[in-house]
Amino acid sequence: MKKLLASLALAAAVFAPGAWAQDAASAPAAAASVAAVAAAPDAASAPAAAAASAPAEAASAAAPAPVPNKGDTTWMMLSTLLVIMMTVPGLALFYGGLVRSKNMLSVLMQVMVTFSLIVVLWVLYGYSFAFTEGNAFIGGTDRLFMKGIWDNVAGTFSNAATFSKGVVIPEIVFAAFQATFAGITACLIVGAFAERIKFSAVLAFMTIWFTFSYLPIAHMVWFWMGPDAYTAAGVVDEMNGKAGLIWQWGALDFAGGTVVHINAAVAGLVGAYMVGKRVGYGREAFTPHSLTLTMVGASLLWVGWFGFNAGSALEANGFAALAFINTFVATAAAVLAWSVGEALHKGKASMLGAASGAVAGLVAITPAAGNVGVGGALVIGVVAGFACLWGVSGLKKLLGADDSLDVFGVHGVGGIIGALLTGVFNSPALGGPSAVGDWVTASMIAPDAYSIASQVWTQAKAVGVTIVWSAVVSVIAYKVVDMTIGLRVSEEEEREGLDISSHGETAYHK
């Protein structure tokens, strides 16, 4: 079990809850504890990272090898299915309803095919570079083509660690769960340049961006050696040194505030600038053709997000339950906040606003799901509702980009808000679960030792690195694609609609 899967609990505190103790073995906590031991902030390894990282290798030689619990395995398989539902059909319908009818199928195709592309790349090399031991920025080649998942010597499947010592799940399940995260992250970007980009350009860009932005960020935030690797104080520094850079800092990210939302949002914003504005933008109305479908898509996203967030605990335990209720509460609070803000600003609350508010709440609670108390989740939801409403109105005008479906306004703003507030509400003084301060004993950081200022600064550094990394990779990727196959369709094809010009079919027949 040399395989050191990474920890997806980017917030040591985030998963700290799940990471501590038995049921707390989630990533955030894990990260935090390690950091404390190492005198570093504490790293919130992503929920998944911890799981795959230090299976049972560090367990005492005399102890029997841990066996996956059927309940944990079932929960993780169900969570994986829920995240697939989030993407296809959830995100596809949410985005599809927001574009004009002549571009409906093009968006559905871009989401579905992009998701499929990323899953294949994940199996070929993505999983290995994200969740195996390499260096502080990228993993190694131990799991290329998923080799080693079946242990020929033992005659059984390899296991991945969770955030509890001595608790494992089948590594193949962990790999599948993480594949869905990579897939939906790439699909989120589609909304920024919808209605004017070449289908082939989408796939070419996604391949480059996934390889050079998603994989390194996922490794930096979520990869660590797992709880069982911390057998004694003397190995702490060595184990910490093998983790991803941002995990070593102690940043908390329970389910992907940086890796998923900020990462994708920055790529989308860069794309909105580099692909250019839609023909007629600012002069013609770009009214959503079916808010009914958008509402259905948002609802599917909300339901599927329980697998996204609660599944990131990697176990069916109390921290999964905490992430579950926080996902429920923060989203509801954001719907109300956005609706109130819209009513105050425009005089009426809209269905589009309510659906957008739901997504804003889901985005913001993602890094905090298992790292904050219910009270903190409520505050995060309210703040996200109002902040993202400004993001799609005031900030969008300031940026001057044609971000078609407000990817940055919702996922960028919401992701940043959630990442920073995770550092605030992870504090025990504010109802948070704190984080593991010592992975050797799996003990938590004492309430009087938790520093909100220090953790928020760590969160801010993680956000900054993600923004810069994704922006640089995105600029290069878009430029390469533009110089080879071109980014956008002709004006004539754009006016005709991408459904017909790119795919030769229409969503609706009159």
From TrEMBL:
Ammonium transporter AmtB-like domain: residues covered: 75-508
Keyword hit for Signal: yes
Signal peptide positions (record): 1-21
InterPro entries recorded: Ammonium/urea_transptr, Ammonium_transpt, Ammonium_transpt_CS, NH4_transpt_AmtB-like_dom
Cited PROSITE patterns: AMMONIUM_TRANSP
Subcellular location per the Swiss-Prot or TrEMBL entry: Cell membrane; Membrane
Listed transmembrane segments: 75-95, 107-125, 172-194, 201-225, 245-274, 286-307, 319-340, 352-370, 376-395, 407-425, 462-481
Top-level taxon of the source organism: Bacteria
Membrane topology summary: Multi-pass membrane protein
SUPFAM superfamilies cross-referenced by the UniProt entry: Ammonium transporter
Pfam families listed in its UniProt record: Ammonium_transp
Swiss-Prot/TrEMBL keywords: Ammonia transport, Membrane, Signal, Transmembrane, Transmembrane helix, Transport
Family: Belongs to the ammonia transporter channel (TC 1.A.11.2) family.
PANTHER family: AMMONIUM TRANSPORTER MEP2
Name assigned to this protein: Ammonium transporter
Organism this protein belongs to: Roseateles subflavus
Gene: amt
